[in-house]
TrEMBL record:
It comes from Thiomicrospira aerophila AL3. Residues 73-100 form a coiled coil. The lineage of its organism: Bacteria, Pseudomonadati, Pseudomonadota, Gammaproteobacteria, Thiotrichales. The keyword Coiled coil applies. It comes from the Bacteria. This is AsnC family transcriptional regulator. Keywords: Coiled coil.
Amino acid sequence: MDPETRLQTLRHISTEPTQRTLADKLGFSIGKTNYVLKALIDKGLVKAERFAQSSNKLGYRYILTPQGIRERIELTEKFIQRKREEYEQLTEELRDIQKADAGE
């Protein structure tokens, strides 16, 4: 699973704790969401807890484990660093374009 998918899933689990609401938020199918959640559970980043949805059905809600919280922090830091580098590169490209434009 790519880091972007992992980060987005970890970010939204705390506010969208069911598979259906998480799938809607991420724009994934239920099948892909199930696959992603299973992978995160297997890595120990997320745990599933049963809860009563109605009088005759049980559902699961998903919760970050302490390891999942650390992973989310690490992925967020890397994401921010990538965006800073992209920003610096774009700023430099813009300066070069402005210099070239001023020289014409």
